[in-house]
Amino acid sequence: MLDSIHMGRHDGSSEEDERVRRSDRERGHRGSNTRVTADKPSDDRQKSRSESERKQEGLLKRDWSDSQRDKLRNEEKSEVAKPKLPELNPSDSNAMALGKTGGVYIPPFKLARMMNEVEDKSSVEYQRLTWDALRKSINGLVNKVNASNIKNIIPELFAENLIRGRGLFCRSCMKSQMASPGFTDVFAALVAVINAKFPEVAELLLKRVVLQLKRAYKRNDKPQLLAAVKFIAHLVNQQVAEEIIALELVSLLLETPTDDSVEVAVGFVTECGAILQDLTPKGLHGIFERFRGILHEGDIDKRVQYLIEGLFAIRKAKFQGHPAVRPELDLVEEKYSHDVSLNDKISPDTSLDVFKPDPDFLENEKKYEALKKELLGEDESEDEDGSDASSEEDGSDEEEDEEQMRIRDETETNLVNLRRTIYLTIMSSVDFEEAGHKLLKIKLEPGQEMELCIMLLECCSQERTYLRYYGLLGQRFCMINKIHQENFEKCFVQQYSMIHRLETNKLRNVAKFFAHLLGIDALPWHVLAYIRLTEEDTTSSSRIFIKILFQELSEHLGIRLLNERLQDPTMQESLESIFPKDNPKNTRFAINFFTSIGLGGITESLREYLKNMPRLIMQQQKQVAESESSSGSDSSESDSDTDSSSSSSSDESDREKRKRRRRA
């Protein structure tokens, strides 16, 4: 091994020669200005250099004073320039920094302060600030709208310049609908109200929605397509869009049916089928025939087939549960529809979403202010504000006006809630005592006592069979307060006047309820005076009601006690209409009616009256004849008296003549 090593050294170069070569190589590297990337220092060299640099830095730091350190820091700060943020006041120089839609976020208080600081109201800076404020206001109003506050949001939305911000409104409305498709009908109702005043705004939104639908259909974007289809369906329901676009859309989806396209079509027809049934029944029939053909072909998935069968069931039920427009969202009477087709070339007008300086900005703002006053009627409010500062007397007058102008609940929300509370209390109670105790705790405003009686009677009529629970509950209220007794009397009159509208089951329950109240004298019997039992004044429903009423009374009281009650002299005036004696025909009808229902025993007085009617008639005629004869005899006696007096006077005159002759 040693020999080989020595041989290798002699064959190569000696150690001294190698050192010389290394030194020459290092000198060559130092002299050259270019740096060779291939010749990298070794790891040992890097470690030694880093250690030496650290030591030098430590020495420098020890030798530096505090003043030198501060000076070095200031020089570094001055050399490194920080990036400048765009100014809050937008101008032509930094307009590009703000971006398309307005740029950086500005807090509302700072934005209002900046708007007040701007003196030139027609300048570009002021217009941009108002544009940002308009965008934020429209987004906020659209984002918080729902079915309960839509009537409050609409005036606030009209207070904003919708002519200038129509692009902002359309974009905000579409984004909100995409984020929450469950509120699509609310957004459609909002668009319908705006369509009544500004049709061009609703037309722009409809065009953008149609364009969004076409793009989603081409890209096979199912979530976006579902949202757009649902929006179009509710715009058709609100009659913002013509029904022809609905037929075009369904025909497009079912032209080459797939699982997804058929599913989207089923959802669309479910949403707007009710309005299509009214507007184009033939078109809807054609749609369902196409669905039927798809079912017979059987090329789609079982799940989608079940969806189609469910749609046929909804159609058979006349779209119950899927109304075109909910009552609280039916806000427009005069509706204006736009004819937009899927085949039209549509321009989205995206330039309306971007700020542009308006040379006639102040004039346009004044025009919209005048239009806003016409829509919202703000003249009266301005007059009221002026009168606030006038005097204390004016202030008192305004308080009276405010009392008169208080908002009235025309939707009867409080009344509906009261009825719901009464219904739940009645249905959740174990017995009538518990129900009566709970119902008495409900605070009723003056005039709402009638609602309690109406709901009690309504609950009773809805049962399959009559429950004595309701009769006992009504009896308790009649005994507690006379107001409830009077209200039940009114209910009796109302129910009998509308008795022909009730079904037989409801009619039976109502009759048994009032029979219970009459049988225990909780309800006075003079309410029977409203019933007139004749062939002309009764219907089949009213005769059934009277039959059940008197049969229940006979079961409660017994036929003997009922007959005694009916024969009571104090009751005769109230019962004249049920037991008529004015005409033999009506009397016979009442007798036959009560006999046919098994209560002939209460007609004994009527039978005697009808039996004695000829004799009574003869007596009446005889009395009339006697009265006439008596008047005739009186006249004859007076005539005879006059004749006798005249004859006696003539005899006396004859005698006097004879005496005179004799004397002569």
From TrEMBL:
Region (Disordered): 1-96, 375-410, 620-664
Stretches that traverse the bilayer: none
Protein origin, superkingdom: Eukaryota
Family annotation (Gene3D superfamilies): 1.25.40.180
Composition skew (Acidic residues), residue ranges: 377-403
Biased composition (Low complexity): 626-635
Biased composition (Basic and acidic residues): 1-29, 37-85
SMART domains reported for this sequence: MA3, MIF4G
Coiled coil: none
Domain MI stretches: 417-533
Keywords: mRNA processing, mRNA splicing, Nucleus, Translation regulation
Subcellular location: Nucleus
Family statement drawn from the similarity comment of this UniProt entry: Belongs to the CWC22 family.
Name used for this protein in its record: MI domain-containing protein
Species annotation: Brassica rapa subsp. trilocularis
Lineage of the organism: Eukaryota, Viridiplantae, Streptophyta, Embryophyta, Tracheophyta
Gene: A07p033390.1_BraROA
